[in-house]
Amino acid sequence: MLRMVALLSATAVLISGTVLADTSSTYDYRHTHFPQQTQKIQKTYYKHTHHQERENQEASRYNMGEPQNGSRDKGYSYFPTYRDTRGQAEFIFDPNYDAWAAYNANGQRVNVGKASGGKDYCPDIHHRCHTVVGTFRVIAKEGPGCISRKFPLKTHGGSPMPWCMYFHPKGYAVHGSYEVPDNGNASHGCIRITPAAAQWLNQNFMRIGTKVIVLPYR
């Protein structure tokens, strides 16, 4: 009986040793004979995981109301994180602070950024050109090729207004612009925001009928 147990133990050790030897041999063989393939796999894995981490970080920024729009700090500490929207999504522009905020139907602030509204005086039209004040709804949207149908006056339109979202029949719109000053209103009446922010709003937030609120000038 004792001889049988000893024989079985020796067999188990031998089998275990063989398995371990095979595993070690396979590992060494792959890394010894295919070093370039191994490095390529490692680089691909790193590239994929690094890209995934960046996507997760971007998603968390949106959830926190910090969009990658080149101006995520503007309005972040100004607009409250919650607002009673009465079950409707809202876009708010404050021409006094030169910033905008977006609130979802639950009243949570989901995005903020810098903005520029209509100027106190536009020399080419010889009068004040403030953005219309009040509560409106988005009535039309266009993509990256949106252009003004009026300005510049010399060419009867053509000024780029990428990702425009019209909220007034007289042509007032929220749109992207590469000329959005950090402070001060500089437009002919539209609400200028960064192109990245305009694209985000156009594709992810603003729908036909979304409420647009322009606060009064002071």
3D shape: globular
What does the main sheet amount to?
Answer: 5 strands, mixed
| Structural class assignment | alpha+beta
Percent range for β-strand residues:
15-25%
For the record, the CATH class of the largest domain is Mainly Beta
Please give the alpha-carbon distance between the first and last residues.
101 Å
Listing every helix as H and every strand as E from the N terminus to the C terminus, the arrangement reads HHEEEEEEEEHE
Radius of gyration: 30 Å
Q: Give the name of the CATH architecture of the largest domain.
A: Beta Barrel
| Strands, total number | 9
The CATH homologous superfamily of the largest domain: L,D-transpeptidase catalytic domain-like
Helical segment tally? 3
| Order of strands in the sheet with most strands | 3-2-1-9-4
Task: Give the low-confidence spans.
Answer: 1-35, 40-68
Mean pLDDT across residues: 77
Q: Please give the domain count.
A: 2
The CATH topology of the largest domain: L,D-transpeptidase catalytic domain-like
Summary tags:
218 residues; alpha+beta; L,D-transpeptidase catalytic domain-like; 2 domains; 5-stranded mixed beta sheet; 4-stranded mixed beta sheet; 9 strands; globular; disordered N terminus
Task: Break the fold down into its secondary structure elements and pairings.
Blueprint: H1 2-33, H2 35-63, E1 90-94, E2 99-103, E3 109-114, E4 134-137, E5 140-141, E6 165-166, E7 173-176, E8 191-193, H3 195-204, E9 211-214
Parallel strand pairs: 1-9, 7-8
Antiparallel strand pairs: 1-2, 2-3, 4-9, 5-6, 6-7
